[in-house]
Amino acid sequence: MNPKLKRQIQSHYDRIRTRHAQDQDRRQDQVYQKIPLVQEIDREINKKGFSAVYQSLAGKDAQDLQRELDHLKDMKRDLLVQNGYPEDYLDPHYDCRECKDTGYLENGKRCDCLKQFLAQDLYEMSNMDRMLKRENFQSFNWSVFSKTIQPDQGVSPYENMKLVVQKVDQFLQDFSQDNGDNLLFYGGTGLGKTFLSNCIAKALLDENYTVIYQTSFTLIDLLERKKFGKESQADLDLAYQLLFSADLLILDDLGTELTNQFTNAEIFNILNTRILAGKKILISTNLALHEIKNIYSDRVFSRIVQNFIPLHFIGEDLRYSNL
Length: 323
What we know:
With 323 residues, this protein is α/β, with parallel strands linked by helices. The protein has 2 domains: 3-82, no CATH class; 126-313, Rossmann fold. It has 12 helices and 5 strands. The chain is elongated and about 85 Å long. One of its GO terms (molecular function) is ATP binding.
């Protein structure tokens, strides 16, 4: 991990802890003013706490002191409740209880909140955060989809998109379930596949899920640099790990990359590992299903056919419309 990112992480969690410490001080001042006895009890708790630690370090029995401490804490909780406060009103508060706003669990592993922060940082570095502010469900414009039935499809682009969005809504509602559902957006260029992918990404990021977006080109570039590059491995390792650990991997423009034995093997590894782990995937491609079969290995095509819900996008190119 590069030094700049380390400083960003430290600053991020420092701000969170400082905010909660200031809020705790405010709550404490409020209670001390209303219930002076609580302040006296806290002073006594601090004194006896130091004494208990000293006796323990000296090898002396501190059980009596511990009982007194427990009694004082019970008195404090009772006073808070009697005066209309929750019993834990003066306890430290955290944005993340799992790591207590440090970013790391007791076993030294990264907390999910840190993974989310790192994923968001990757979005910002790729300028995706700016795009998500423009492309989301709130800015979705139904009027750009034609209501004219397409003879070869038997449905209008408007009605088809309604069906697609219904499936997407269900996907989002069931996202936390290990149901094996993944999405395959396929159809011609400029039909809203990337826009809807961004809508999904924004909705999940707002729910604090980790989402990684890669075009097929940037994915293969990352994989090649990971395997063959000479640059620092720390940042590459992080980006590579997130391909497997992020709650959702969005792979956009599948089929535009140069395919060979290496890319086929790597794409299969990512898809297969995530599917086995119950991690969701969204693939977007301009290819028809038979073209996917012709370009990729049987193993890749099999994983897609068996584990993805295919959603067909139809209609005219919308890239010049205000989606």
